[in-house]
Amino acid sequence: MNEDIGDGPMPADLCHIYETMATITFGEAATVGAVRAGRLNAAVYPVRGLEGVCAALGDVLEPTDYLVSTYRNLGDAVAKGVPLKRVVAESYGRKLGTSKGKGGPMHLVDVRAGLMATSGIVGGGVPIAVGLALAAQLDDEGQIAATTFGDGATSIGAFHEAMNLAALWKLPIVFVCQNNQWGEHTALSDYAGNPDLAERARAYGMHSIAVDGFDVLSTWRALREAADHARSGAGPAFVEAITYRLGPHSAASDRGYMPKDDFDAAMQRDPTPEFRRKLLESGRASAEELDRIDARVHALVEDAMQAAVDSPPQTDDELFTDVFADRAAIPTSTKWKANA
Length: 340
Fold this sequence. Notes:
Elements: H1 11-36, H2 51-60, E1 66-70, H3 74-80, H4 84-91, E2 115-119, H5 125-139, E3 145-150, H6 157-169, E4 173-179, E5 182-183, E6 186-187, H7 188-191, H8 197-202, E7 207-212, H9 216-231, E8 237-242, H10 260-267, H11 271-282, H12 287-310
Helix pairs in contact: 1-2, 1-3, 1-11, 1-12, 2-3, 2-9, 4-12, 5-6
């Protein structure tokens, strides 16, 4: 961090990135704590270890860009600008939630923030994002799409089909592999004949970068390069951000399958406290600035948790709203007609 950041984020942006990372870290801790205490009955998948990747991606994307995430989505949602209280409320199944409590934590959607879909199916969001990228290409208004997924998704058939189409049609999309070294409870080396995932993207003739996902600034630069490449009309880009899972697969599981030495070494690079330390050491932020951010984030998390609990649960008469189309409201034109 003592190196010249060159074309990296401005000091104010560095503090914003740190605030996003802290919100993810502390927000996740509160949510996981609620699950383990029995106050929240929901499938929550921790993102600890990915905070820097999520925050960097959120910083380089424009508010109008599309993002498709996975069920491990709290970091992506917060980084894309979805209010934390609406994310938590969705986990609680409350009206305040992003989908009025009807999607749950595995299916967060907030179109206003550009979070267009999240998928509970490994790799299932990748072809959805390719469709959004095609729409962006046709609209020709400067938007790009981005999609995040774990290393396990790179072995799914739909992933390769989507990658091939994106490369063939030169779609404006950034594929972000959040490589945390584990496909659920299976190590990458045990299910991938070639663990160099960025090389898979190069096989499609795609611009591809591998980066240390624990290094926030290097990740920011790689994602900025990828986003600029996609936005220029040069076609898709692939970024493999290599990190390590610092939480269990789900809030209800443990880390017993992880080699202790590997986990301990990764914890030495825990992204949020490490980025805070480097900001202080480099003089790019003062302790007072970061303390104010931490206090603001803790208050935000506390408010989000309380707001979710206070929000009323969804009522039975709302269950089918926004689920099925109102046939009478479907527009017709000379180009197509709704089937009766």
